Amino acid sequence: MKLLHLDSSALGEYSATREIGHAIVQELKKHGPLDVTYRDLHTDPIPHFVKHLDSLSAEAQVDERILQQFEETDVFVLGAPMYNLSIPTTLKAWIDRILIAGRTFRYTENGPQGLVSGKKVIIVSARGSAYGDQFPMDHQESYLKDIFNFLGVQDVFIVRAEGMAFPTRSQSISQTINSIPEMFAIPAQN
Ligand SMILES: Cc1cc2nc3c(=O)[nH]c(=O)nc-3n(C[C@H](O)[C@H](O)[C@H](O)COP(=O)(O)O)c2cc1C
Fold it and tell me: Is the pLDDT of residue 147 over 80?
């Protein structure tokens, strides 16, 4: 099973999504062998998308490697803090490489159609304030869900820590981390 773990927080060691994402990966490793690839998109960013006419150019080859890595991955753990109601641009730069018409989705007369299946996406969400599930201005979790649903991936699971700007920040992070084993519990076999 191949797992791709991406972080996009700019806050280094102080990041909630980093801490929680790493705890999730540690938990998943208990469930069976995992081939984990990690990339910190903040310290090792993907450049903004540029159109290249030459498929042999260095940029085109980087794009192809990112896309192939996406296609080969079974499980994604994506550290996705809320930045100005949305996601960090470093994570958006990765998304711009994986939504490729003809590869991961296609345009049809009946609208776009996702071409991706059999993948699981775990979104690690952190927010300075506390909004819950129904925040009409959420362009972070709902955007990421839409992106993966658009590609055909329905198995999108959100792990959320809120109130990161409140004095209760560390309790909120600990609470989220403590609930990880239960969230990812393997269903009992009969
Ligand atoms: C550039 C920037 C923009 C932010 N925008 C929002 C926001 O729109 N709403 C919010 O609730 N918190 C916002 N925050 C707070 C972060 O969501 C919060 O600090 C969260 O813990 C970030 O995740 P991290 O700890 O993994 O870095 C913002 C933080 C930064 C650095």
Answer: yes
